[in-house]
Queue: 2 jobs
Job 1
Amino acid sequence: MKWKAPGSKHADAAVGYLLRAGIDGGGNLASARRSAERALAATEDPEAAIDRIITTHTSIAAAGGLVTGLGGFLTMPVALSANVLGFHVLATRMVAAIAAARGHDITHEGVRTAVLLTLTGNDSTKVLSKVGIGVDGVAAFALQSVSPAALMLVNKAVAFRLFAQLGQKGLARFGRVVPVVGGLLGGALDGYLMHRIAEHARAQFPPAPKALLPGPSTHFDASADGHPL
């Protein structure tokens, strides 16, 4: 099947879904903030907590693992398989959890855009340049002073870049169209890609001035959380 680039409407839909499901959570997927709180509650070292976040998400990705119970997969106006979209939701959640663990406010629109931008890896500078934004330093801080209209342009550019990357590599590579063998290779590839994204997240989200530290405000009973992931 020939790759067809998505339109603006599709890009907007994809971005909106990644932000809602990946950062805010949904179905049986807890929010990125809650994922960070779980990790911080398990260790006194924020960096060790981030290691836990990365290990958890990389393991789920390698197992081919994000649940399809998030809802919305079948209604998305984008020609992506559930596991492709699931991978990017999981990656978005991991990056946002890393950001939260280092004290960033992931409800801030600039930080949320920086989370999406991290998914593009080494292409992030190209994405910003394409929409006329020059960032000298860390995007997580720089984008907090960018106008809402400019952030919308960045979000859309991120979506187009992700779609382009999928088109270049071939949807079959991600879509598990080859039973068993394709699934095994796809799982290993997803784990590898998730780890690469994690490294970009570490670089893009250094500790915020007021770091989120373990304590009464972040501790909770995970068994009573209601979200298995």
Note: The two ends are 34 Å apart (CA to CA).
Job 2
Amino acid sequence: MSELLEATKTLSEAWLQALTHTASQRKGRCVHLVMTVENPGSEDEAVRDVLDLALNEVGGQSVETVAGTIFPNSLYQSPGFSWSPDLDEQAVRELDAAAHNLYERYVGMLPVLRRVRANNRGTYFSRMITWPGKEAGGTNQLDLRISRIRNEFARSLRTNNTLDIDVGADALISEPVAGVQVYAPSDQRTRGFPCLVHIDLTLVNGTLHCLAVYRHQYLITKAYGNLVGLSRLMHFLCEQTGADCGELVVHATLADAEPKHRARPQELVRSLGALL
């Protein structure tokens, strides 16, 4: 059965709520699980520490490593201010340089990243900045979306619902239309990369909201890091456009508590429940 979970203030609460519900279902799975984070980026560090420790003990990727596949936070040097229509030219250049430096540094790392078997089709972030994500020179979807939102604000337009993702190949054409394409329409695999199908961006009254849809959300090994990465992506977009940061909604068409994972999900649920 589908499940719309109660909105939470922090991503830690959203993740634990999703894990607790899914772990209680038959075979530790459920369909159409929707979680909402009201303050993307806010978290309980103690929850992350417990999860990281459990994953490290069994050789899993850390939360930070997973988050970096969606937004490589360590490569972005924030100028410390946000874009606005009345920002002076020097400040705009500084803001643009911070974004372009992020893109260039990541694309420069891409040949090395793709040596890892899991990245041979690119990463989520590479698909966002150089679609289809395997090499330099592709479509920089984030840059297009930033320009689009800035133009809306420059025209005193503060609501735009045309930033939604098109599941068709919108990123393959030159017209700067809506959506951040992370999933090729020709991809017919039933599992494997990418589990993140698309990202919707909706601007309402100057506030940017995000919806991410996963076809298979692994709640132990990936979900927490995904929430961190998506939150950072939202804050990056808001800094670059001047939008306020709204809600982050994640829709897992199949949520998987990974009941047989060596990190022992049921024990995690019990130990983490005492922290929140």
Note: The CA atoms of residues 83 and 242 lie 5 Å apart.
